[in-house]
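re: ur question from yesterday

yeah so i grabbed the chain u mentioned. its 360 aa long if i counted rite. heres the sequnce exactly as i have it in my notes:
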Amino acid sequence: MTRTISVHAEHSYPVVIGHGLIDDCAAYLDRSNYERALIIHSRPVQSYAMRVGKAFIRRGIEVAYFEHPDGEAGKDVDVLARAWDAAGDHRVGRSDLIVGVGGGVTTDLAGFVAASWLRGISVLQVPTTLLGMVDAAVGGKTGINTGHGKNLAGAFHSPVAVVADIDTLATLSEADFNAGLAEVIKCGFISDPSILDLINAHGPVASDDSIVDELVERAVRVKATVVSQDLKESGLRETLNYGHTLAHAIEKLENYQIRHGYAVAIGCVYAAHVAHVLGRCDRECIDKQVRVFNRVGLPVSWTTDNFDHVLDVMKSDKKVRSSAIRMVLVSAPGLARVEKIDEDVLREAARVMGVADVDS
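ran it thru and got these C-alpha cells back, copy pasting raw so excuse formatting
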C-alpha cells in the first residue's frame, strides 16, 4: 500500500511512502517539462541511482550523474563546489532539476546544490536510508558542514516530492538501520508517543518487519505537521532537534566517525538528564528513554575527558541565542519545549549521566 503525506511549506509537496517506487519515481514530479536531471549519489547506492536515471530517461529527460564521497565527507565545501561544476558541465538550467538518491548526507547536499544553483532550481529527493526517509529528506532543510560544526551552511529549499521506497532499506546494515530508528524514536518523544508503544511492544526492529511502514509513516507525519506550521525553525520546528545539541557536538568531536543516529540517542538521554536536573521530569522519564533506545540496540552513553571542549562546540549549535545554549527538553512523551540552559546545569547533567568527571 502506498501512503502519501502532504507537507505545506513555501509550496506543498508529497512524501510518498511504499514499496517498489524507485523504478517509477519520476511519476511524482510536479511537472512534465523538465529537460535535464543531475542525479547526486554516493557509490554504495550507485545501482539505485542508475535505476532512478532510467526512470527519467523513459520520460524523455536527459540524465547526468554526480558521485560524492560516502559519509559526512560528502558534505564538504569542496564537494559542493564540484557538484556546482557538474551542474555547469551538464548545462543544468532553470527548467531542470537536481535529484538526491541516498541517505541524509546525499539529500542534504543535493538540496543545497538545488537551492544555490541559479539561485534555486527544483529538487526531487529519493532517500534510501531510514534516516533519510524520516528526517533529512523531509522538511526542506539543506546544508553542508564547516570547520565550526555540522550543517552550519545551508538553506531552506523544499523538494518537489520525496519518494521513500521501503524496499531500499533491505540493503542497510543493521547498525545503519538502527541509527535511523533514533530519529523515529525522537519523534515519539516530542510528538507521537504511539511510536514508543509500538517499539516497546515489538522489541528489536528489522528492516523487513511489517512495523517499519507504520513507523516511517508516523515519523514523517510528525515532521510534516511541524514543518507545515514552522518552515524556517522560528519556534515549533526547533523541537525536531531533540537530542541534537549534544549529538552534533559528539559527531564533530569524534570526527564524524560515529553514526548520526547513535549520537542522537545519546543526546536524547543527556537532554532527559538536563530536564531532570531542572525538575522538568522525574527519573522515570530518563529510564523510559534508556529502555526504548536500548530496545533497538542504540547507545545511551558517551564519555569525554574535556567537557569544556564539548561546551564550546555546543555553543555553535543553531539554537544558541546571545551565546546562551538552548535545548529541547521533554517533560513527558509528547510534551516538548525549548529552554535556555545554564552551564552549571549542563555540567551537572553530564556528571550524573557519566559523560564526564565534571567539576561544578
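noticed a couple things. The two ends are 55 Å apart (CA to CA). also The CA atoms of residues 245 and 314 lie 6 Å apart.
anyway ttyl
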